Amino acid sequence: MESSSLLIVILILISSLFLFLTKGSSKKRLPPGSMGFPIIGHTPTLLEAMRANKDEEWLNERIKKYGPISRMSLFGTPTIFLSGLAANKFMYTRDGNTLGSHQPTSIRRICGEKNIFELTGDDHKRVREALVSFLKPDALKQYVGKVDEEIQLHLNQFWNDQSNVVVMPLMKTLTFNVVCTLIFGIEPGVRRDILVRLFEKVMEGMLSLPINLPFTRFHSSLQASKKVKAILIELIKEKREALGKNSISSHNDLITALLSIRDGQNQSVISDEEIVDNAFVIMIGAHDTTSILLTFLVRLLARDPSIYTAIAHEQNEIAKSKKLGEHLTWEDLSNMKFTWRVAMEMLRMHPPMTYSFRRTLKEIEFGGFLIPKGWQVVWNASMTHKDEAIFPDPLKFMPRRFEQQATNNSTNIPPYSFVAFGAGARRCPGNELARIETLAMIHYLVTRFRWQLSCEDDSFYRDPMPVFNRGLPIQIHRKQPL
């Protein structure tokens, strides 16, 4: 009896030890962390940190606690958070069969399932090639004059006769008008005015809990998105008819360019739904990211007279070479080397888009941990942008960091460490358009104006992109013509 009881006890102990060891082994393969509250997970605390402009602190605390890879729950989805140079390289170089494009549910439902950030494999390659055919440097060279015209109209309407302006909303107006011209081919008028109001609503709920109830930001953004897409569908119909009648050029704008791409059987390479969804995300990328960069640059030039003077000198030399009324050219932009280094350093310190998302299509191992199939993976660009081992004295503004890179020589900046425009096959196809807008606008600002900040509060928060609390009001003074 006693031996029987002892045997049972031993078997129980062995079974318990086996379960403990296998359980521990299984858990050890998952990254450390917690899933937070049911359903909402860590979403509210991250969004709160972003809106207080403390999300980097929030993430650094998490890294101190769990290390560079941890698990959490964001936007209703089990999530792995990664940080560091190895993580960036891992995320940008994995093939589309193991790690697929994925945005939070709120972004995916607002932007659509057929945009370049959601597509994988051959579909991603096909759509990317179609977009790049319009947005590559060789194609964009012919549109520099159009961007110049939009900037001239904008300055005449909003800056030239003013002594006080609020920068951020004006930069959004400018970049939206450029988008309407180059992406949609929409002239100034009622349709543009409707789109800009709807677009403001769209952006309010881009990064939110996907609860589709009438009082939520997500619901409001989703409704605005549907109206924008209805306008774009009607626009595609009009442009297809115009192309059929040869009344517009296939190079008129992005939509006509995409409609004109055909395969060997004279079939459309990209569907109407893909055109709508990708025009939508390019509108977001070209509008908000560039306007934010320009606003930060205006603030910098008000704060730092030495950088203003250096940029003004470079731009004045270009202005002297132009005839009265002559547009900037691609060659002029190529000579704005110092100005672009300043912009790159600003993007390092304040990247407009800091979070990127993917989803695992199969079980993946990284850093000794298991990332389960179907989980969301998120990482933050500023983690490497502010890494002292990569960028010494990372909180100091030093444009010379990008001096070698700007001249296409070897650089001491490691690949995948500066990812303001993404990297590899996931590099933003609209980065050259952003460069054109930024350089052309800064050219006209510094050759025509001096300015100073109008209030002490020039702070900002993220929602999810940077938003200046006061919109950045400045006093401007018109210079005498050169």
From TrEMBL:
SUPFAM superfamilies: Cytochrome P450. Gene3D superfamilies: Cytochrome P450 (1.10.630.10). Belongs to the cytochrome P450 family. It comes from the Eukaryota. It is found in: Membrane. Keywords: Heme, Iron, Membrane, Metal-binding, Monooxygenase, Oxidoreductase, Signal, Transmembrane, Transmembrane helix. It comes from Oldenlandia corymbosa var. corymbosa. GO terms for biological process: sterol metabolic process. One of its GO terms (cellular component) is membrane. One of its GO terms (molecular function) is iron ion binding. Its cofactor is heme. Heme binds at C428. Its main location: membrane. Residues 1-24 form the signal peptide. It is a single-pass membrane protein. This is OLC1v1021990C1.
